Amino acid sequence: MSVLFSPLSIKSVTIKNRIAISPMCQYSAIDGFPNDWHLVHLGSRAVGGAGLIITEACAVVPEGRITSHDIGIWKDEHIENHKRLTQFIEGQGSVPAIQLAHAGRKASCDTPWMGGLYLDMDKGGWKILGPSELPFKKDAPTPYSLSKDEINTVIEAFKLAAARSLLAGYKIIEIHAAHGYLIHQFLSPLSNHRTDEYGGSFENRTRILIQIVKAINQVWPKELPIFVRISATDWTTGGWDLEASIQLVNILKEIGVDLIDTSTAGNIVDATIPVAPGYQVPFAMEIKKQTGILTGAVGLITEGAQAETILNNKEADLILIGRSALRNPYFPMQAAKELNENLKWPLQYERAKI
Ligand SMILES: Cc1cc2nc3c(=O)[nH]c(=O)nc-3n(C[C@H](O)[C@H](O)[C@H](O)COP(=O)(O)O)c2cc1C
Fold first, then answer.
1. Interval 78-88: pLDDT, tens
2. Is residue 2 in some structural domain?
3. Environment class of residue 210 by beta-carbon count within 10 Å: exposed (0-12), middle (13-18) or buried (19+)?
4. Residues 27, 118, 170, 181: which is the catalytic one?
């Protein structure tokens, strides 16, 4: 049997194969409520055979949305709509996971197909926030710097969102600490110039993430997994890097994080990124090797054989598929064929199996 189609058990959860649908914003919600689009989008990928389906970045507070069309889980009313997603995904034998997120200084934007620019207040935008008064890029609005009380409110919002995620039927939480969003803004010395206990030293910059994990632990069952997505490097001198990531992961492992979904970049607008097939895999491999934690590899992994090699080489334990799964929701079926695996298809589709 290929490793790609072998199960992965983490705590009490067994994922039937090593293919996860990477979180991908759909910008299609109103007031944070997932709707038919999200059901069909995530549902088709569960029908397509992926072992793990991770929602797009789901905002823990309304001001933490990238756009006003992001999904959210900041109020109890959202739970029912999320339940429709988790029930359908589980019905297909896949595991439903939720990515909890706060966009920080990258919030208050228009949807990509409307240009993706920051929105002015009079056009539906809102006040953005971050660790420090440092705009993401030239011409971007300056975020206000969170007070310590406001940081506590953010931590509490992650905790409440985790409690709602459980009620909604999610089996895994992924904390979004990557791509230049709020938590990553705290981690990186390039976006965090604070002088209090949330800025400066490594210990201080990582404090918010550690406190978020500990807060989630208070409401999230011990037998259910927690993932953290990080950007293992800012690809910029003086920024967050692999060494800091390894140091951080050693702490996260101690406090109950099970898997590091290893991405890169997103915090520095003019970083030079050597984009190529599997270009982020070495980070997943190094983190796995140095800390012993499970890792997920993501980024330009587009073929079954490529995914199988990564797993066989013990460079990662899980393969996240993004754009290839947008092009083809049946990516796992295609990869199974490539690897001569006899994947179980939905009964309804079996007459098409050759
Ligand atoms: C349309 C789209 C939306 C995305 N939204 C998210 C998101 O909500 N959260 C996240 O962590 N990454 C997001 N990403 C990044 C993907 O999860 C993935 O890391 C990236 O696309 C690289 O993988 P790929 O080469 O397989 O597409 C998004 C990517 C795309 C294409």
1. 999 999 999 99
2. no
3. middle
4. 181
